[in-house]
Design goal:
The chain is of the alpha/beta class. The protein is built from 7 helices and 10 strands. It is globular.
Amino acid sequence: MIQMTGIQKWYSSTFVKTFVLRGLNLEIESGEFVSIMGPSGSGKSTLLHIMGMLDSSNKGEYLFDGETIHKMRENKRSEFHKNNIGFVFQSYHLIDELTVFENIETPLLYKKVKGSERKEMVDAMLEEFGMTEKKDLFPHQLSGGEQQRVGVARAVVIKPRVILADEPTGNLNSKQGEQVMNLFTQLHAGGTTIVQVTHSEQCASYSKRVVHLLDGEVVRDEPNV
């Protein structure tokens, strides 16, 4: 599904290039559940953002189902992202002024899904994620775990091919984190490809494969047994 070859990312100042990714190679098969681990500054989040088409590399090739992402124009890449990828962030990224229902509905508005169909799809997500009774509440009225469940529901409502999660339990206590990881396990069992960045060995234990980064390079890539 995902093929990344020779991916380089750097930031330039007047005389110096600071490399974040150094010729990184990575493949993700459809239906995998992969954790990306490594110390701070190893390039994990940058890699995930390039994979999620929120950023682009300076050099290298990125193919998604044979589509050449790194050569796409920005508007086409944005459309491709909307149709294929759900993103879950550590800090939830919910819209404070919108209710739970409206936050989950937002990606469907971008895709111009008709009103009656939107309601049906959001209601299904609310029920699946146990949030029906809280649909009219605002983010500040929810616990951290509940906010992240809304974040996951929002990512899933478009039925993405792949979910990318950047430290999805980083702001949660252990019980809330376990609930979110159980949601990912259920989604993976249903065929969704999941790639998560995490510092947590406990969270990584839910995945089937662990990729270790150091200084912008893959240093270990192994099945999780």
